[in-house]
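Hey,

Quick one before I head out. I ran the complex with S-adenosylmethionine overnight. Inputs first:
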Amino acid sequence: MELCKISEGKAKIEVPKFEKITAKTPVFYNPKMAFSRDISVSVMNAIKLRSSEKVLDGLSGSGIRGIRYILESNAEVQFNDHNPAATRLIERNLGLNSINALVTKSDFNHIYGKFDVVDIDPFGSPVKFLDGGFRILKNDSYLFLTATDTSALTGAHASSCRRKYDSKPLKCSFAHELAVRILIGKVVRNAAKYNLSPRPLLSYTKEHFIRIYFEIKYGKQRTNKNLDRLGFAIKCKCGYRKATKEYHFFCPNCNEKISFSHPLWISEIKDSIFVGDCIKEYESMEFLKDKPLALLKTIKNEIDIPLFYDIHEIAHIYKTKIPKTEEIVKRLEELGFSASVTHFSPVSVKTDANINEMLRCING
Ligand SMILES: C[S@@+](CC[C@H](N)C(=O)[O-])C[C@H]1O[C@@H](n2cnc3c(N)ncnc32)[C@H](O)[C@@H]1O
Ligand SMILES: [Zn+2]
């Protein structure tokens, strides 16, 4: 395997020379995912682990993620990958950074031990690692999760979403928000049988991937309440949308038949105070890049209400002109609504206004 040197954050590692990144690369490394790793380091610092607490980089690849957690967050990390070429490379990369850590070559679902943080960063869907993850997470812990199978979650491959997530997705302008909510819903339902209740602290989508950071707590009552936060997303051709506990057959706005997605998480997808802590941690590390910080700031200010409105879509339905996103936010606020731009889409807004109030703002 021919190697080349790269540096990312405070880490200097070697990775296989590659033409195109695929699951078949001898050891997986995607330079574009530095974006996700930069944010992960700030999250790791924001959760303020005690020195005895343990992090599992469960699907390590080259080890870059865990090595950065050690160098930039002072975490105690165990590395794991079932690919022997990966574990050999991780050992080599630990040496290059003059650090020691336990490296295991196990199937993720057979890892032994209990951890305070488990990071599951697969190529594709994380669902087949959820049971394994909940088995090794402590009662008070954190789960970091990536999904790159956005085509399933956004409804381009609806049958795949049904099989993996046991959810019906919906192809629509806010499909990426539904994707995040379907993934959270799956994690919450999967955790419930262990009396565990995951709560999303930070969730985002970017290009081909979704990343969600959960706080995990134990308790039957808490878990029951968590399950109460699952429901439907309904949508109509008139632009009406709603996250709701009950299924509707007809649109409350125009009486036409509605489309729906179910089951999914209809509650908060972030904890604003926690995102603020991540921003502070991020700003204290000057070597990190600017773009992930801009995303964190957008998310911090985002109204946490389902489901966002795509201004172009509403303008298209009602054949109106298309005002600037910021202008709509301003008009909504002037009318007394909560409103913000959203990281999900640059031409969309989050608001507690309904479709008719939105339309009034678009028409000026
Ligand atoms: C997307 S890569 C990990 C990338 C890495 N976390 C990073 O930030 O660069 C996924 C890794 O999971 C490993 N893997 C896939 N299935 C596994 C399993 N069942 N058990 C353990 N490792 C597995 C693959 O060998 C691959 O190295
Ligand atoms: Zn309608």
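The chain has two domains: 3-301, 309-363.

Talk tomorrow,
K.
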